[in-house]
Target: Cystatin domain-containing protein
Amino acid sequence: MTLQSSPIHLLLVVAVVPILSAAAPSGERGPLVGGWQPINDINDPYIKEIAGFAVNEYNKQAPASLKFAKVTSGESQVIAGTNYRLIIAAIDGTTTRNYEAIVWDKPWEHFRQLTSFKPVTH
Model:
């Protein structure tokens, strides 16, 4: 009995090999698609712009009068644009507090939306 290649056999090989390769354990793993990734440079001007936008939008919606101080940490998530989850230090009168803000950004559409803004409680 000889093994002959047929289109079905080739299709199975083409379909299964990438799956096995992706499932194979390795020392290097890429970012999880859709997962949150740390922002390496929280002092990047674009990140500061996103944070300032978050504080301004919160002030309009609340209404409040917070003043942006700095970004203390952040993560991003790429899904139909980028979600930014930032911990922002903001001044409320004479007190500085940390807030968690989530901003959805799609710069190619000139779209930016504050989706969450809440005090950080520990």
Q: What stands out?
A: Residues 24 and 85 are 32 Å apart (CA to CA).
